[in-house]
Amino acid sequence: MLLEIITPDQKVFSGEVKLLQVPGLDGSFEIMHKHAPVISIIGKGQVKVITQSDEKQYFEIEGGVVEMKNNNIILLAEHLVRKE
Question: Which domain holds residue 61?
């Protein structure tokens, strides 16, 4: 599935992923291949991305919105910091 992570300043990530984990307002949740369509507000916390090559990437966000539709995910983040 294609994931795009976007802030007001730039596109931070774009690529094929196996899994996206985001901090929901009531706890974290995961989006995987063929997930049902969803739009959700996300809170402050850690975003975990697992790419098709099993590479794990982590980001800290201040909040935002995530949309999953037709195996495409767009995460709009207010502020984001890539963690190593």
Answer: 2-83
Report the domain count for the chain: 1
pLDDT tens figures, 54-65: 999 999 999 999
Please classify residue 18 by burial: count the beta carbons closer than 10 Å to its beta carbon, then call 0-12 exposed, 13-18 middle and 19+ buried: middle
Residue 2 and residue 33: Cα distance in Å, rounded?
9
CATH number of the domain bearing residue 64: 2.60.15.10
Q: How confident is the model at residue 79 (pLDDT cuts 50, 70, 90)?
A: confident
CA distance 51 to 44: 22
Beta bridge partners of 41: 65
**Token couple for 68:** 């999953």
